[in-house]
Design brief:
By secondary structure, the protein is α+β, with helices and mostly antiparallel strands. It is built from 19 helices and 15 strands. The strands form four sheets. A five-stranded mixed sheet has the order 10-12-13-15-14. Strands 2-1-3-4 form a four-stranded antiparallel sheet, covered by helices on one side. Helix 11 runs antiparallel to helix 12. The relative contact order is 0.05.
């Protein structure tokens, strides 16, 4: 019987005997750094197979007893193996590797079927085919008992090399086309030529270094991947969907590639054993292909875009622990359990605290926190009575997300929703039966995601409360206006009429009639909700013509068609009326003019009130600090309407006053 720990040191059949070497039991012949040991391995595999495949053979066993007591001679044991049989049970590692290869191949084909119109997914599938060939070939010869037929073993080894090189080349070509095509050059032609050249050099053993023709070439493909990824990163900086696909692809691809190269290939290049054997490292590529498939089929890119940093973080932490464990285990010759404990202590007590300090000092604040911090400012702006809630809502969406494009849609939208994989966000317009579509968040640097939807929904709720408050406030103002207007009409108006009919003083009667006329204007203003400019213009023109005729001054007063439909609140109308009256009074009293010109026009969302005369003009030392009572009153009313006043001198002489009044200038109830 052979006990665990016993060492098989030789095998024999008939007159043929072979002393076994540790390298005979290596799972992967490519672990050799040169072709000499590689070729010798297959020669010895042929001899071993010829011994064990012909029925009866013997093997020498060195018992693992305590050598301090006695030195035992090897014990020869003869076994009989039936010909043309195969094992009834295959090891678990065989099925594990086979399932990894088939899973990768299936995901590659499925992703390509989803996006057959794109060249990128085709090379993704080709890379999957290559890695599937490499894995399944490896699954066959790494789970052998002791030996394989040399020709079959060599063919499987070359199939493994072919698959690995096809995977590397197709993966690099994928980055040339995905997510955007870098140039019109057909990179796959160069890839096919390089793969054929490398395999020819490997199989023909043009150089003695297996490291150079197998491992260094894989590293070269990986470096090319990094260069192409940087180029793609720059090209997609204003394409958030493509950037999200690229970020997820880069994470998935380099997680598998760098993980495999770092754990399997890199240690071999420095003549150290792999930190994890190749047959178990294939699982990294399964995760890689799953991640890339999610990006290619655009599965919730708005979430993948957010998960990417967290996924990279945990991947890096896991790699760090494995590297520390491998360094302590291999270079310091520590026991495995002890090295793992030390690496966990280093990561937990040194790396994590240091990482938190660096993140808090170097990284900018999260845009998520900034977004939610804007909520209070948004609500405070919503209470600004100078703009409607609807206008404030549009402005709030613009400030919060900084979209490249904002479009109003007639489509009714009850709740915010994501469109085109997060490229656009549709939000309802408060108080209207339409919606607003925001495209390319943060000027095209990111996608909208579900947290944006949650934020918008919360902001909508608060804005609806503001709208209800303002509507209640407006209703209260209307009610109070109606009461004041009714009281003025019934009480003050009646008393003024009594004065008019009872007084015998003609001057007092005239003054009372003027007061009653002003009172009626005030009452009408209180009763109206809005006033159109053409209605006010008719009233202003009639009054100005009467006053100019009284002083013998010519009047030229006009209203442009663009401005005639402008709508103002009663308070704005009263202020504009006072401005026109004040200018007429100043001109008729002081300017010694023969002609007065008044123009009302519209510029964007502003009313332009331009008044001028042909009189004596402004004094030479006229400044804004020397304004008279009339001009100062005009300036005050303009500022109350959130407008501006400017004085100027016309070319033909005289004086001019220009007022710029926003249509939504005066505070609305």
């Amino acid at each position: 019987m052979v006990e665990p720990g016993d060492e098989i040191i030789a095998i024999s059949r008939d007159n043929l005997e072979l002393q076994l070497e540790p390298f005979d039991a290596v799972l992967e012949p490519d672990d050799s750094s040169h072709f000499g040991p590689y070729n010798r391995f297959f020669e010895r595999q042929g001899v071993i197979w010829s011994i064990i495949s012909q029925g009866n053979f013997s093997f020498a066993v060195q018992r693992n007893y305590d050598e301090r007591l006695i030195n035992y001679e090897p014990e020869w044991i003869t076994v009989s193996v039936p010909r043309n049989t195969r094992p009834s049970d295959l090891p678990v590692s065989f099925w594990y590797q086979t399932m990894c290869g088939l899973a990768i191949l299936w995901m590659g084909i499925a992703a390509w079927a989803f996006a057959r119109h794109e060249r990128g997914p085709f090379f993704y599938t080709m890379a999957g085919l290559g890695i599937a060939i490499a894995i399944i070939a490896s699954a066959i010869y790494t789970t052998r008992s002791l030996a394989f037929p040399a020709d079959l073993f060599l063919s499987l080894s070359r199939a493994n090399q072919f698959g690995a090189m096809l995977f590397a080349g197709a993966g690099t070509t994928l980055l040339w086309y995905y997510p955007t095509r870098i140039s019109a050059f057909r990179f796959e032609r160069l890839m096919y030529a390089l793969v054929a050249l490398i395999l020819a050099a490997n199989w023909g053993q043009w150089l003695d270094s297996l490291d150079l023709l197998a491992r260094v070439t894989l590293l070269a493909w990986a470096v090319t991947d990094i260069v192409l990824a940087v180029i793609q990163w720059r090209r997609t900086r204003f394409e958030p969907v493509e950037r999200a696909r690229l970020k997820w692809f880069v994470y998935a691809w380099f997680s598998g590639v760098i993980g495999y190269l770092g754990l399997v290939i890199a240690p071999q290049l420095v003549s150290k054993p792999s930190l994890i054997h190749q047959q178990y490292a294939w699982g990294l590529f399964v995760l890689t292909y799953l991640g890339i498939a999610l990006g290619i089929v655009r599965y919730r890119l708005f979430d993948l875009d957010r998960w990417i940093l967290m996924a990279w973080f945990w991947f890096a932490c896991g790699i760090l622990i494995l590297l520390l464990d491998g360094i302590l285990l291999v270079w310091l010759n520590l026991q495995h359990a002890l090295s793992l404990v030390i690496s966990v202590i280093i990561v937990g007590w040194i790396y994590f605290p240091l990482r938190q300090v660096l993140l808090s000092k170097l990284l900018p604040s999260s845009r998520r926190e900034d977004l939610w911090e804007q909520l209070s400012r948004m609500i405070s702006h919503a209470f600004d009575a100078h703009h409607s809630v609807e206008q404030q809502w549009k402005s709030a969406m613009q400030r919060s997300f900084n979209p490249l494009h904002t479009r109003r849609k007639s489509l009714f939208c009850k709740d915010p929703c994501l469109l085109d994989d997060g490229l656009r966000l549709r939000v309802p317009l408060i108080g209207e039966g339409s919606s607003l579509e925001l495209s390319y968040a943060n000027h095209g640097h990111r996608l909208f995601d579900r947290e944006d939807v949650q934020f918008t929904r919360q902001a909508m709720t608060l804005f609806s409360y503001v709208q209800q408050y303002r509507e209640s406030f407006r209703q209260g103002v209307r009610t109070e206006r109606e009461r004041v207007a009714r009281d003025l009409h019934d009480d003050v108006g009646a008393r003024l009429l009594s004065i008019i009919y009872r007084t015998e003083d003609s001057e007092l009667a005239i003054l009372a009639r003027e007061c009653l006329h002003e009172l009626r204007d005030v009452i009408q203003g209180l009763q109206k909700q809005t006033v159109t400019l053409d209605q006010s213009f008719s009233r202003w023109h009639s009054e100005a013509r009467e006053r100019c005729e009284l002083f013998g001054v010519e009047l030229d007063m006009s209203l442009s068609p663009q401005a005639s439909n402008m709508i103002f609140t009663p308070r704005t109308d009263r202020n504009l009326t006072s401005i026109v009256r004040e200018f007429l009074s100043n001109t008729l009293r002081h300017a010694k003019a023969s002609r007065i010109t008044i123009r009302l026009d519209k510029f964007t969302e502003y009313l332009v009130l331009d008044t001028s005369d042909d009189g004596i003009g402004w004094p030479p030392d006229m400044t804004y600090s020397h304004l008279g009572i009339g001009l100062y009153s005009i300036r005050e009313r303009c500022e109350e309407l959130r407008g501006q006043m400017a004085l100027y001198s016309p070319i033909n002489g005289g004086a001019g006053v220009r007022c710029l009044i926003p249509e939504q200038g005066e505070a609305q109830p």
